[in-house]
Every structure is written in structure tokens, then in C-alpha cells.
Design a protein that fits this description.
Layout (H helix, E strand, L loop, with lengths): L1 H14 L11 H18 L6 H18 L3 H19 L7 E11 L5 H16 L3 H9 L4 E10 L3 H13 L3 H12 L3 E8 H16 L4 H20 L10 H16 L5 H28 L1
Antiparallel strand pairs: 1-2, 2-3
Helix pairs in contact: 1-12, 2-9, 3-4, 3-8, 4-7, 5-6, 7-8, 9-10, 9-12, 10-11, 11-12
Length: 297
């Protein structure tokens, strides 16, 4: 269920990664437009929290407070309210296995260039060799350029049952057992992180933009393609790998073929289409692979 949820959310985002206006003047503007658009889509596609799940979580914490105060009567009352909140969701047709209780979008854009990435990577390796792990970790954390959609979920399969078991213990005057069950239930919350690499989004937008203006603004189209090549190099240096048969080298070669055609007879439509298709497939598999690896941690 975790993987299915992640992949479905990712595909929704992929459908929304559009291209900026045709007459954008510079590669920087095209890239900025792509990032802005992706952020907007991610924010609109955030998982809506389920109020009943949020209320149940709040009441669970309140029950623990009641138990700290030795107020078993209030604890039972609040626990029954929490169970009631989730019963409403359980009664619904096709109730989801995971109920979102919190959702946020975090965008981190790497500001440096390829040389600065390579320099930082070498420095991380030196720090690790010297046993300065925390310094290496802090520097490594700066080597990312991505949009993260973070959702915390309450598992509907197990959480209500835990509340019912805690209620049973309270009715038997077993407050310590009830507390243990509730604390374990709170530890079953599931976090999903959907990661979208920004350099791949930028490269896609730049290539699409270059295709639109290749006939009328040849020099500008070539600048867009060069910027796209740079974004792919950044993506590779930051470790955004893919399970696609297409490689970064193959994408670079395809860009070179398009550039050559633009400089010549400029009949590059088919080459553009092939390049765009390759990059789209590469990006989708990179996103899928990246998110599956993070779920395994």
C-alpha cells in the first residue's frame, strides 16, 4: 500500500509538470518557471488530511494526559470518542488503509554548479576518512535539489484495534497496559516521502522549450539545450539515478544530435520527440527508484 500510494502521487505530479511560456528569454527563466510550476502542482496535489484521523490522534494524546493525571474516567471517555471518530471512516465504502493526518511540501534547490558539487563530494569523502561523520552528514545534506511531498498517515487497519484494546484494559483497571498499547499505536504512524528531482524537471522544460523555438530562435534554442545538458550533469552528480535503459550518456548524445541538426538543415522535430520521450521515461523511472529506496530505509 505504501508503494502504491507513493507511485500514484508521483504520477499525478508528472502529469502536471508543464512548460513555461514560449517566449521566455533565457534558460534561467525557463528553469525558474519549471520549478515554480512544479511547486504549485505539488502544493495543489498534497494529500488532504482526514479530520476524523486527526481528531483520533489528538484524543489519543489526550487519553495519555488523562492517565498521567490518574483520571481514568476521562481517559475512558476520550478513548471512546477516538474510537467513534475512526468508526465513521471504517463505515465508509472503500475506506483507505492509510489516513493522512499531516501533509507538507518542501522544496530545496541546489544553487551551486557541477564543480561545486564535485568539490563538496570530495570534501565529504575526506571528512568520512577522518572520522568526522557529523560534519560530513551536514555537508551531504546540502547536496540535494528536489521537491519532497511528506505525508504522515494513520493506519486504519491496526490503529482502531489498538484503541479498542486500550479501552478494554481501562475497563479492567489496567491503566499501565492501556498506556503501553496507546504508545505503541502512536509509533505505527506511517510517513511517505515522495521525491521529485528538480534538475530532471528543469532539463525536461528546457528541451521542450527549445523544440518550440528551434525554427524561429535557433541561437536561443541551442542555449536551452546546453542548459538542459548542464542540468542532467547536475542530476547525475547529485546521485539521481534511474533504472531506465537510457543513461545520462545516452541523453547527452541525443542532445548533441539535436544540436547538430539545428545548426545544419534544422529538421530536428523527430530527434526532439525521441529525446523528450527518452528523458520522460528516464525521469519517471528515476523518481520511482528514488522513492522505493527511501521507503526501504
Amino acid at each position: 500500500m505504501k508503494k502504491l500510494f507513493a507511485l500514484m502521487t508521483t504520477m499525478v505530479l508528472l502529469l502536471g509538470t508543464g512548460v513555461v511560456n514560449v517566449m521566455a528569454d533565457t534558460p534561467a527563466e525557463v528553469s525558474a518557471g519549471a520549478v515554480k510550476h512544479a511547486k504549485s502542482v505539488a502544493e495543489k496535489k498534497q494529500q488532504q488530511v482526514v479530520k476524523e484521523a486527526v481528531d483520533a490522534l489528538f484524543l489519543t494524546h489526550k487519553v495519555l494526559d488523562d492517565l498521567d493525571k490518574k483520571d481514568q474516567k476521562s481517559a475512558i471517555k476520550d478513548l471512546e470518542k477516538a474510537i467513534g471518530k475512526l468508526e465513521v471512516v471504517l463505515a465508509a465504502k472503500n475506506a483507505p488503509a492509510l489516513l493522512p493526518i499531516d501533509s507538507s511540501v518542501v522544496a530545496v534547490e541546489y544553487a551551486g554548479d557541477l564543480k561545486s558539487i564535485e568539490k563538496s563530494v570530495k570534501q565529504v569523502k575526506r571528512l568520512l576518512d577522518d572520522g568526522r561523520v557529523q560534519e560530513a552528514r551536514r555537508l551531504l545534506d546540502t547536496l540535494q535539489s528536489e521537491i519532497d511531498i511528506i505525508t504522515v498517515n494513520l493506519p486504519l487497519v491496526s490503529y482502531p484495534q489498538a484503541l479498542k484494546l486500550a479501552a478494554k484494559y481501562l475497563h479492567q483497571n489496567k491503566a499501565d497496559e492501556a498506556r503501553d498499547v496507546l504508545e505503541m499505536a502512536l509509533n505505527t504512524l506511517v510517513r511517505n516521502d515522495i521525491v521529485i528531482p528538480l534538475p530532471l524537471l528543469k532539463a525536461e522544460a528546457l528541451i521542450a522549450q527549445a523544440k518550440k523555438i528551434a525554427k524561429t530562435h535557433k541561437d536561443q534554442a541551442l542555449k536551452h539545450l546546453d542548459a538542459a545538458r548542464n542540468e542532467l550533469q547536475v542530476a547525475e552528480a547529485l546521485g539521481y539515478t534511474s533504472t531506465s535503459d537510457t543513461t545520462y550518456k545516452a541523453l547527452d548524445d541525443s542532445i548533441a544530435s539535436v544540436e547538430k541538426e539545428i545548426k545544419g538543415k534544422n529538421k530536428a522535430e523527430k530527434l526532439f520527440d525521441e529525446l523528450i520521450a527518452k528523458l520522460k521515461e528516464f525521469k519517471e523511472k528515476a523518481i520511482k527508484s528514488l522513492n522505493e529506496k527511501r521507503e526501504e530505509k
